[in-house]
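Notes, p. 3: input format for complexes.
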Amino acid sequence: MAFPTRVCAVCSEEFELKPDKPGFANRCPECSQPDPAGPATKQGMDADERKALTEANEARRKAMRDLLYRKDS
Ligand SMILES: [Zn+2]
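Output follows (73 residues plus zinc ion):
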């Protein structure tokens, strides 16, 4: 039996929309899985971890800004 084919809204890959597929109907099974690297979903962070995360985010933002600035000039 064939399942309807959908295009994933995240990665644009085609996938079969199976009735028991977990997650969003417009996302492939891979993109329906929670991001294991996502720090936002992490539970029970202590202050040091939170601080390190904030610093990492700031560094990433700064790097992104530098990248954009370089592209514009
Ligand atoms: Zn996908």
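The mean pLDDT is 84.
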